Structure formats: C-alpha cells, structure tokens
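The material for today's practical consists of a large collection of protein records. Backbone structure tokens are a discrete shorthand for how the chain folds in space. An example says more than a description, so a record of this kind follows:
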Amino acid sequence: MSKPSAKTQTPRKPAAASAHAATAAEAAPEAARGNRFTERFAPARPAAAPAHVPIGAAPAAGRVDAKLANAWKHKPGRELTEDELLAMPESEYMNEQQIDFFRARLKALKDDLLSNAGETTEHLREDTSIVPDPADRATIEEEHALELRTRDRERKLLKKIAQSLARLENGDYGYCDETGEPIGLRRLLARPTATLSLEAQQRRELKQKMFGD
C-alpha cells in the first residue's frame, strides 16, 4: 500500500511578528507625512562654511593665459594692462617694464592732482562778498574750506609721488623700507606710493594705536 502523501503546509508566522509588521505598515504613511512636513517647514540648513583661506594667501594655482604672461616681452611697460602686469613671472619683479609702468602711472596721477589744484585756484577767485544772501555766502565759504582741505591732502600726496619717482630712479621702489622685502604688485597697483609691505604697515598702525606715536 502506498503511503498517503503529506500535505505541504505553509509555516505560520508568530503572532507577535505579524502584529509588529502590521504596526510598521500603519506607521509608514504617518512617518512619510511627517518627513514631508519636516522637509517643507524646517529651517534651511546653513551652507557648509568654505575652507579657511589665510588673509593675503595667493589663490590656487591655475593656468595663466600665455598672451598675458608674455605681453611684457614685446610691449613697453607703460602700455601694459594690470592683468598683463600681474601675469608676469615673479622672477621679473621690478624689471624695466614694471618700472616703466609705475613711472607712467605716478606721472599721470601727478598731472591729475596738479590739474585739480588749478581748478581750485579758479574757484577761490570767486568773490563771496558780491553774494547778497548771507546763507548762500556761508555755503560758498564752506565749500571753499572743504576744497582747501582736499587740496592740502593732495599736496601731501604730491610730495609722496615725488619721493616714489625718486625711488624708481635709485632702484628702491617696490621694496619695503623696514624689511627690504617686495611690497607686491597688487599693493602697488592699489597704492602706487606705498613704501611698506602690508604686514609692516599693519605693525606700524598697531604701534601707533597703542603708543600714539
């Protein structure tokens, strides 16, 4: 006699596991709604802070346009642009082209200041006594006083320009008076009459603030 075939029985899950699965299935929609609500109304997360770059550090090295880097080889210094000047190799610091560039810039600045001084002279020739209204006369006199203070600052700048032109001739231009290190092209472009590097200038200003010298 053949044995009766055993019926395949599907194993039953434990009751606790079934209940846990049902609870998780019911909670899933609620969690999804909660996540969507949080993502919609939660405050925006601050962007990651950029990597710290020390003040005065040079930007990451990259490719320099060959036309800019080689322009100084076939152009007079006074015809160079600032970008062409900055693209020059460090080994050419204060070469003939750079000296020619800054000489032309200093002379142009000097000419502008002298032109402004001539305009001031013309303005001061205005006779305020012929202005009948005392308020208008006081306004003109105040404008004259302000213009004179501006011209006084420019007079001091003219003296610095003359000193810078002399430094160009004796080979001291572009180098710090205190340390002898290069001042740097970027600082000279911003302040052509600079005689101190940025670090030396900061030390001097700090000393003056502390001791009042």
Notes: Helices lie at 15-41, 66-70, 82-86, 96-124, 134-170, 185-190, 198-211. The mean pLDDT is 74. The chain has seven helices and no strands.
